[in-house]
Write a sequence for this structure.
């Protein structure tokens, strides 16, 4: 059983900042707007500094759990013995039962997401093992449009700031979990982490993202075993190829009244 010691009292993710309203006619007085709070957290795995995450200062345990899972570092909560988050939320320490650091791998520093400041310091805990294909499930168009409507109606942080990415987990047509973040990768990982902690089987889920779907986003879904990935945005050619290779149902440009299905492994069978 994963032990969580979370000493962090979540900070307010929105700060009201003063500015001046500019119009074509010139400055038109004071303006106050809600802006996202940018938060940085260093993550150690088995005492080894492993990554730096720049995010909104909420749902940090969900983010860490989801990131470890979608990057293929762990295969589930049973692989995680302890997670500790300090009282400022700037340090998260993870103890894994399943991995020892492989120091033969070269240390790297990359930016694996749209979140400026995110860093992966090494690949000591990752594997080059090819992920398994996703197991497709029957689905209904109503599931996609339920998520698209939820997005169109707006989520709390985006409504306050117009600056977040949103991610929704849908089970049987019901939006079950919503998470937001300044980066689409973080929002996805927060949803996955929350689902794992709530005992939700991701193999039954549709995940809807507000952001475009490059290769790394699709690989997160494949690693997590999510059978259906949807977005209000667009894929890339390589994204579509990967979805077809790994039997991932891929639905993009989803609006409340239309969407484009780029891959449906079950096709007429569903």
């Amino acid at each position: 059983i994963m032990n969580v010691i979370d000493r962090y009292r979540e900070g307010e993710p929105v700060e009201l900042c003063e500015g001046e309203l500019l119009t074509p006619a010139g400055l038109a007085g004071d303006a106050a707007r809600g802006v996202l709070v940018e938060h940085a957290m260093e993550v150690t795995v088995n005492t080894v500094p492993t990554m730096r995450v720049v995010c909104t200062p909420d749902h940090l345990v969900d983010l860490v759990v989801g990131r470890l899972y979608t990057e293929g570092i762990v295969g589930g909560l049973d692989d995680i013995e302890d997670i500790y988050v300090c009282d400022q939320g700037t340090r998260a320490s993870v103890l894994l039962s399943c991995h020892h650091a492989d120091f033969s791998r070269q240390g790297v520093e990359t930016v694996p997401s749209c979140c400026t400041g995110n860093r992966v310091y090494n690949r000591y805990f990752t594997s080059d093992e090819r992920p398994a294909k996703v197991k497709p499930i029957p689905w209904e168009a109503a599931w996609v449009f339920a998520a698209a409507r939820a997005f169109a109606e707006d989520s709390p942080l985006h409504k306050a700031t117009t600056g977040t990415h949103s991610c929704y987990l849908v089970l049987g047509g019901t939006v079950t979990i919503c998470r937001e973040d300044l980066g689409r990768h973080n929002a996805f990982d927060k949803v996955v982490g929350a689902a794992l902690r709530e005992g939700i089987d991701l193999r039954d889920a549709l995940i809807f993202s507000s952001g475009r779907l490059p290769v790394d986003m699709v690989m997160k879904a494949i690693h997590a075993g999510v059978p259906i990935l949807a977005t209000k945005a667009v894929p890339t050619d390589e994204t579509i190829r990967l979805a077809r290779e790994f039997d991932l149902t891929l639905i993009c440009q989803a609006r409340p009244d239309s969407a484009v299905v780029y891959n449906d492994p079950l096709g007429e069978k569903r």
